[in-house]
Amino acid sequence: MSLPEAFTERLEKIVPHERYEAIVRTFDSPKNVTFRVNTLKSTTQELEAELKAAHIPYESIGWLEGVYRIAPEHKLALTQTDAFYGGRLYIQNLASMIAPLLLSPQPEETVLDLAAAPGGKTLMLAGMMQNTGWLSAVEPSRERFFRLCDNLKSQGVTNAHTYMTDGRSVGKKCPEMFDRILLDAPCSSEARFKTHDPKSMSFWSIHKVKETSKLQRRLLLSAYDALKPGGKLLYCTCSFSPEENESPLQHLLERHGEHLNTLPLTLPFDNIQKPLERWGKEVFDKRIQNGVRILPTDTIDGFFLCMLEKKTNIT
Ligand SMILES: C[S@@+](CC[C@H](N)C(=O)[O-])C[C@H]1O[C@@H](n2cnc3c(N)ncnc32)[C@H](O)[C@@H]1O
């Protein structure tokens, strides 16, 4: 099945012209599989010894300690290892690991994961916090909430507090409570489209993108309310659509821009692009330029990230 025509027409206007063809091809073939050591249960050295003993032909991701890549045909063997069953490794796309890495939660901090299930990023946040402090994980979908709880348990997380609730209500319930907030927003998941998996694209429409954008705006306002002065908020999605990336941030900055800065993000690879300056009639706040769009390759999914900081001198 081919990509939706309305999607590719828009994608062509969003990504750099010279990269468009290569980007479209990344939707066709299965991606390399990436995974990381679960530092709550193992170490890089121990996991590498286990992988060698199990004859898994892994390759280290040079710039990220404890993160590995295998060809897609070795995924089945990886999921049959003791390390996988014992929760000592976690399979996760590289793009998803970057959000916790950039948010960089510290031990003993108060952290909120506002759209958490199935919990890949919550697990990594807990590992970085060394199971200390307070990590709130919010997920309204019942089925996904229980998957989140199972994942946290099997991977040895003990500092997380889970809430089956709508993230839009959290800001009013917990004003200025968190040092760091991750909003890995529900989105149209355009970066997860696979032409060999028609289901991955079946719910997509421009109408859906616009509906999701409204939800993202409200979640961002809630995250803003829940953030402590001086705290950091990382907004991210796995969508290419500006309606789901720059636009919700624009909406937030129009309401609370005098109390917010954005922080520049640097990544150690070159398949990136700056956020858009404009889309249709909308011209975006220059501060959004500090965010980053990750362009997909055979290993990494497309992703959008922008880090905000709440000023301390709010009166
Ligand atoms: C992109 S996924 C999160 C993935 C997760 N952070 C991870 O790394 O495993 C977005 C999640 O937001 C949830 N969601 C949908 N509506 C929400 C809302 N109103 N408040 C909070 N979360 C919501 C979805 O059910 C979905 O689980």
Order of helices and strands: HHEHEEHHEHEHEHEHEHEHEEEEEE
Query: Ligands bound here?
Result: S-adenosylmethionine
Task: List low-pLDDT spans.
Answer: none
Number of domains: 2
Main sheet, how many strands, which sense, barrel?
9 strands, mixed
Q: Quick check: average pLDDT?
A: 97
Please tell me how large the radius of gyration is.
19 Å
The gross shape turns out to be: globular
Overall strand count: 15
CATH superfamily of the largest domain: Vaccinia Virus protein VP39
Query: In CATH's first tier, which class of the largest domain applies?
Result: Alpha Beta
**How many helices in DSSP terms?**
11
Strand content: 15-25%
CATH architecture of the largest domain: 3-Layer(aba) Sandwich
Helix content: 25-40%
CATH topology of the largest domain: Rossmann fold
* End-to-end separation: 55 Å
Strand-pairing-aware structural class: alpha/beta
